[in-house]
Specification:
- This protein is of the alpha/beta class.
- Strand 3, helix 3 and strand 4 form a beta-alpha-beta unit.
- It has one domain: NAD(P)-binding Rossmann-like Domain (Rossmann fold).
- The chain is globular and about 50 Å long.
- It is built from eight helices and six strands, in the order E-H-E-H-E-H-E-H-H-E-H-H-H-E.
- Helix 2 runs parallel beside helix 3.
- Helix content is 46%, strand content 14%.
- The strands form two sheets. The protein has a four-stranded parallel β-sheet with strand order 3-4-5-6, sandwiched between helices.
- The chain starts with 8 loop residues before the first strand and ends in a 7-residue tail after the last strand.
Length: 227
């Protein structure tokens, strides 16, 4: 959606093949003037610093950040190893902190910026179908959103989050039929969220018209959680 609207977009993945596949799917939208693909480890401070320097040299300036990196864990507490726990935090929380920290100086210099964090309904409910590490990290990412928003607001930078539930992705579509049936019965609107609906919310939060929305977590769950 952002590429279609003329944004110059940095596209990241930590897996080179996954990045290549995404670029193939985007097809004619990908060109060297509008799209900058880059592969790096978002959980490693040195890797992030090197990647941000490359982006600054080749594709400046970056004043909008969507923190959408992360992994899913369905493991319950009894089966959770400390290694899986730490890896989930590294992927879902550390990555957002490291990339935000790296890009904030330029946003502060411009006195304008937008950061959007992909949170989750699991961070508010403890998770309907997710494990303890995933739910806890999404709760941490929500609090990170609040803290960073308060810190950056006077610099002209807004920080917000989106808490979706069950976006229609290949992962969700691969759920067992019984689980899909159960979830669709629980979700008041009776369907999963479309990827374009999530993208539209991102587009609004990064626009100038959202400048007075700061430190909010936008629920996008079809009525599964109402507050």
């Amino acid at each position: 959606m952002l590429l279609e609207d003329g944004f110059r977009v940095v596209i990241h993945d930590s897996d080179e093949q996954a990045l290549t596949d995404l670029l193939t799917d985007l097809g004619s939208l990908v060109n060297e003037h509008q799209c900058y693909p880059i592969c790096f480890d978002p959980c490693n401070a040195d890797s992030v610093a090197q990647a941000m320097q490359r982006i600054a040299d080749d594709f400046p300036p970056v004043y909008v950040l969507v923190n959408n990196s992360g992994i899913l864990s369905k493991t319950a507490s009894a089966g959770m190893s400390i290694e899986e726990w730490r890896n989930c935090f590294s992927q879902n929380v550390d990555s957002a902190f490291l990339i935000s920290r790296a890009l904030l100086p330029n946003m502060k210099k411009r006195k304008w910026g937008r950061i959007v964090n992909t949170c989750s309904i699991a961070g508010k409910t403890g998770g309907h179908t997710t494990g303890i590490a995933y739910s806890t990290t999404k709760g941490a990412l929500q609090t990170f959103t609040f803290a960073l928003a308060r810190e950056c607001a006077k610099e002209g930078i807004t920080v917000n989050g989106i808490a979706p539930a069950y976006i229609r992705t290949p992962g969700v579509e691969a759920y067992p039929k019984e689980m899909v049936k159960m979830l669709l019965e629980y979700i008041p609107v009776g369907r999963f969220c479309e990827p374009a609906e999530f993208a539209h919310t991102v587009k609004f939060l990064i626009s100038p018209l959202s400048g007075f929305i700061c430190g909010e977590i936008i629920d996008q769950n079809g009525g599964l959680l109402m507050s």
